[in-house]
Design goal:
Number of strands: 0
Shape: elongated
Structural class: mainly alpha
Distance between the termini: 63 Å
Number of domains: 3
Number of helices: 14
Helix content: over 70%
Length: 321
């Protein structure tokens, strides 16, 4: 029994590393698969001989296991983040990765002679925040690529409508002619309509998967035209001009605020870097005062001020266009 208890931390570390490597493998594989923007993931699956229904279920992350459904109901924001990041992984996969990352990071920090409470806090922060940061970054890049290519897709739809093609055919043309992520999303909408889903439901699903506000205007315009008729090409032409000008304005704002964003990153990361360096190089640096109630109060105040400062900087350099 003593031998088992002595080796228990190493066993936990081994299991955590094993789960971390397995979960990270799927995320890295999807990251590499999505790096090629000239061919959509849907088209790659079909060219490889994969069944169309299986490809659709994989990209839509369906059907989902009971664990993923339970986590999605408990934390809908996590399920929405996974869907909008474009990764064909389940919420359960992400949860396993976060748990494994937390265990591994806590064990590594504890092995670096950090205090137990500090190692636990740092491990949870790294394990939970790391996967979330990766998915948030991938979602941001995916949205940016989608917004950049949306005017081109609308132009293609407009020309196809003027040529006399129905709406479903124009959406299929976008899926065939354009790359990730816009080609994949329009292709999934076409596949859903092929399997019997109405047009408005397929467009609603696409807007939820992407999370881009400009796409909602397009979906509403197509839905209204599909129900009551009208000059859809003219409406989409106006939306295309607005979307293109809006994207150009966003690019200008990002260029002007680049220095402020970089300053915010440096100011926010420097205190954390200094604290981590002290914990590694001088673990007993705060040993003489860590039991003092005033020390804990000051630490909480310092962290609170750091968070407030980062929030203020973020609001100053980010604008909603």
């Amino acid at each position: 029994m003593e031998i088992i208890l002595d080796n228990l931390p190493w066993f936990i570390l081994f299991v955590g590393i094993l789960l971390f490597v397995e979960s990270a493998y799927y995320l890295i594989r999807d990251w590499r698969d999505g790096a090629n923007g000239t061919v959509t993931r849907r088209m790659r699956d079909l060219r490889s001989g994969r069944d169309k229904g299986k490809s659709l279920r994989r990209l839509l992350r369906s059907p989902r296991d009971a664990v993923s459904v339970a986590i999605a109901r408990a934390v809908p924001a996590l399920d929405r983040l996974v869907a909008q990041s474009g990764m064909p992984v389940t919420v359960a996969h992400v949860a396993v990765l976060m748990i494994a990352s937390s265990i591994t990071a806590t064990a590594l920090f504890h092995g670096l002679s950090m205090p137990t409470s500090a190692a636990l806090g740092s491990g949870l922060l790294a394990g939970l925040g790391g996967p979330l940061a990766v998915m948030a970054l991938k979602r941001r890049r995916r949205r940016r690529r989608f917004q950049e290519k949306l005017p081109e897709a609308l132009n293609l739809i407009i020309r196809s409508l003027k040529a006399g093609h129905p709406v479903s055919v124009t959406i299929g043309t976008v899926a065939q002619e354009m790359g990730d992520p816009i080609g994949t999303e329009f292709g999934l909408a076409v596949d859903e309509m092929t399997y019997g889903l109405p047009l408005y439901e397929a467009l609603d699903n696409m807007t939820r998967r992407v999370g881009v506000d400009d796409l909602k205007f397009v979906a509403v315009a197509i839905q209204i035209q599909h129900q009551v008729g009208g000059n859809l090409a003219g409406v989409l032409a106006n939306i295309e001009a607005v979307v293109r000008d809006r994207f150009h304005m966003m690019a200008k704002v990002r260029a002007v605020s680049a220095e402020g964003r970089m300053s915010g990153w440096v100011i926010g990361a420097l205190p954390l870097f200094v604290w981590a360096a002290l914990m590694v190089l001088r673990p007993d640096y705060y040993g003489a005062v860590e039991d003092d109630p005033l020390f804990k109060t000051l630490m909480i105040a310092a962290v609170s001020l750091l968070v407030i400062g980062q929030a203020v900087i973020w609001r100053l350099v980010n604008f909603r266009i």
